[in-house]
Specification:
mainly alpha; two-stranded antiparallel sheet; 2 strands
Length: 253
């Protein structure tokens, strides 16, 4: 991909995230699309839950500019739509846990059957030659892992910079692993765009000298979207003959 196109996509993703957050803040407060502090969420005042929708808008705007076929990640795109729509509804209406759980399972099945993103083996844990195959347990184990990652990110949203920080650290680790040990391809471009989107979000979510507290959170829409995308990349890059890293590495990250 031409360097100009690559740089343009990154800048576009970053700017669209910032612009979307800026323009969504007032309507969010007007509609009551905010997070209130409680025992688990120790932030101050009402905080708009628009980060996820803003990031989704930025990704939907920037991804087509990468000049790469999106067919290999159709399941991820469809699954993202499912969790974002469910997350927005949950942010407004506090849906049942079973509703969110069903959406997460649906999104996982989409990436499994459309993208072929499934954990087939755990790598050579016991020796250098013997791969631990999951066989018939591949899909159930994949469901367990993906839903677990989604909920881990979801639980971390609500503290300044925590969910976004987890996300960007994981994405940067994936980029470095892909550059050092894998075969850079469309996944690398997607990861770099995701880094730009998360960076734009952290401008509003991370404390710094010019901002004393977070002014937006991801919301369920954003945390579930980021969790699903991270799980997709970790599985895709840790399986197959040309894997960028061993599956067990994902556990440490």
């Amino acid at each position: 991909m031409p360097i100009f196109t690559w740089v343009s996509s990154v800048i576009l993703a970053f700017l669209v995230t910032i612009i979307a957050i800026f323009f969504l803040q007032y309507p969010a407060r007007h509609w009551g699309w905010v997070d209130e502090p409680d025992q688990r969420k120790q932030h101050q005042g009402s905080v708009p839950l628009i980060g996820g929708v803003a990031m989704f808008i930025a990704l939907a705007t920037a991804m087509p500019t990468l000049q790469a076929s999106l067919e290999p990640c159709f399941g991820l795109l469809a699954g993202t739509l499912v969790v974002v729509a469910t997350g927005v509804y949950d942010d407004f209406h506090e849906s049942r846990a079973s509703t969110r759980f069903l959406a997460q399972i649906t999104a996982t099945l989409l990436i499994v059957f459309y993208d072929g993103v499934v954990i087939d083996d755990l790598g050579a844990l016991l020796s250098h030659n013997d791969m631990i195959k999951l066989d018939g347990w591949s899909i159930p184990f994949t469901l367990f892992c993906v839903v677990g990652v989604i909920n881990a990110i979801n639980m971390s949203d609500g503290l300044d910079g925590l969910a976004g920080g987890f996300g960007i650290i994981a994405v940067l680790w994936l980029i470095i692993s892909l550059l050092l040990f894998g075969q850079p391809g469309p996944e690398l471009n997607m990861l770099i765009v995701l880094t730009a989107v998360l960076s734009g979000f952290l401008c509003f979510n991370l404390r710094h000298p010019w901002r004393r507290r977070a002014t937006v959170f991801m919301g369920d829409a954003g945390s579930m979207m980021v969790g699903l995308m991270l799980a997709w990349f970790f599985i895709r890059l840790s399986q197959g003959e040309q894997r960028a890293f061993a599956p067990i590495s994902a556990v440490w990250i």
